[in-house]
Amino acid sequence: MSIAYSRWPKNFEEAYRKAGYWSDEPLTQMIEDQVESNPNSVAIIDGERQVTYLELDQMANTLAIYLDQQGVKRFDTALVQLPNCLEFYVTYFALLKLGVAAVNAFFHQQALEISAYVEQLAPSLLIVSPEHELFANQEFVSGLKTASTSIETILSLKACDYAVSMQDILYSADHKIIENPSFDQASDADEVAFFQLSSGSTGLSKLIPRTHNDYLYSVRKSVEVCGLDQDTRYLCALPIQHNFPMSSPGALGVFYAGATLIIAQSSEPIHCFELISKHQVNMTALVPPAVALWLDAAPEHQAKLKSLKLLQVGGASFAEAQARLVSQVLGCQLQQVFGMAEGLVNYTRLDEELNYTTQGRPMSEADEVRVVNQACQEVAVGQIGMLMTRGPYTFRGYFNSPEYNQSSFDAEGFYCSGDLVQQDALGNIKVVGRVNEQIKRGHETLALHEVENLLLKHEAISQVALVAVPDAELGEKSCAFLVLKNKDIKPLVIRKHLVSLGIGKDSLPDAFQFLSNMPLTPVGKIDKQALKTQALKVI
Ligand code: AMP
Ligand code: DBH
Predict the structure, then answer these.
(1) What is the pLDDT of residue 462?
(2) What CATH number does residue 396 fall under?
(3) Of 434, 454, 469, which one is at a domain's C-terminal end?
(4) Which of 104, 357, 419 has most ligand 1 atoms within 8 Å of its beta carbon, as the pocket-test mutant?
(5) Segment 183-202 mean pLDDT
(6) I need a surface site. Which of 1, 52, 302, 440 has the fewest CB within 10 A?
(7) Does pLDDT of 200 surpass 70?
(8) How many angstroms separate the CA atoms of 379 and 185, rounded?
């Protein structure tokens, strides 16, 4: 029995095939193509290790053969939780070859999330790292096995006392990559290839089924729009499982283009600057809070950044004031990316001004976008509304969530992302905020983003986040969290700054909190949920 998911209606499937968006090839085709044409090019660099396309394919075959022998089979599911490392993509392709659909948990995720994934997916296979505190010993795994009897096979990234180590499977006794023949691909292109994770800002992440056809198209189109070629040297600085560094165009775009992926342990600036310089990286992708750290650290390390040509920024709103600093301080081109694990990806193209002021336009002519009001009617061009979208790589439903899907899609299959946007006549999108990220304070309604952008115009402020908290008198009040550059400033100065930029007195933040670091989600976006909890304590 195959893995059930909300399919596109038949007429859409036919249209997407006919137009060539869906090529009916498995995602592993990109590696096979490189093995054919480009076998000895370096595919991945991870620390001191590097593997060619041929070696990457051999390692994936070795793992697939081993798991096959263990009885792991097509249509099984797996839970994989690995840090940024070469083995992540070895596993990714091995499971695709086997037709096993994995959910790739972020390495920062803890018991709550891991248990929820196991419960939803009933995986037969677990691939984990003993360097994660949950998996340092057998205790948590034993609990999972008791709660979910589906788990049959467990592999660990490195040696541990309760599971077979992937190193023992992938390398021979003299540390050589085992040369295995190809492993026959099991899956069809319209099956679930793997599950992406939604950001889960309102609770636990939901599972997003991504098929070979839809995901491969999103990668292929991204490669075209972003202009990757064999000379691309892409640094994966974000968590390796995230949709952005995986597919926009990310690591898979790199493989599709026959280019080289360099894996960083984190987006920490000094670590990344070293890798950029050592491996002549020319492209990378970051979320805005990481860009802020890079901008602060870069002036002392200019020489290391010479090879960097393109920095993609996405995942959360990127203030115009910071966008304008990128080329100046980092000496590279900026590209804004507005994407979602559910599908739709927007890129800015090379137009300078649009690059600073918008988050791009849909990458495919087949992306359908509607900007609607509360009554689901389309708003006039340029007006703020909720984003609705459908298309050849936008999913049609979360895994096993009929009720949630009811409220996330309209009758025509458009997905409501919860983003408030403005779209111009040429399709360029500005993300204004989220449906629930507005403050209703007395008679004023203001978008958090607008105030955040004004705050960032102050030279002493490096990062901001505004959150709303309930208030008995006014409905809601706001609290501004600020990370300052080196200078010290008082709330009074910040209030004056906002007033000088035209903010009404009733819209000023009610409280200011100064932090040395923002709390972050696993992918490094500002964790507004955590800030709300904190704001409740001070307001
Ligand atoms: P996720 O569910 O983790 O895939 O996150 C997707 C969400 O991140 C989108 O729906 C947006 O709310 C937000 N997002 C992604 N890229 C951008 C961007 N460039 N600007 C503003 N918000 C973004
Ligand atoms: O935030 C995201 O989910 C995201 C951002 C940029 C994404 O999924 C993507 C590009 O593909």
Answers:
(1) 87
(2) 3.40.50.12780
(3) 434
(4) 419
(5) 86
(6) 1
(7) no
(8) 47
Task: List the one residue out of 184, 169, 221, 179 whose CA is nearest residue 28.
Answer: 184
pTM above 0.90, yes or no: yes
Q: Cβ distance 345 to 337 under 8 Å? A: yes
Q: Which two tokens stand for residue 82?
A: 């690995």
How many domains in the chain? 3
Q: How far, in Å, CA of 307 to CA of 400, rounded? A: 45
Q: Which of 197, 291, 431 to mutate to test the pocket of ligand 1 (most atoms within 8 A of CB)?
A: 431
| 413 close to 19: Cβ distance less than 8 angstroms | no
Assess whether pLDDT exceeds 90 at residue 157: yes
Query: Can you give the residue range of the structural domain that contains 279?
Result: 218-434
Lowest-confidence pick of 152-166, 360-374, 490-504? 490-504
Is 343's C-beta closer than 6 angstroms to any atom of ligand 1?
A: no
pLDDT digits (tens, 9 = 90+) for 439-458: 888 888 888 888 988 998 89
Strand 310-314 and strand 333-340: the pairing is: parallel
Rounded distance from Cα 519 to ligand 2 centre (Å): 19
Helix or strand or coil: residue 369?
strand
Quote the CA–CA distance of 440 and 410 in Å, as a whole number: 27
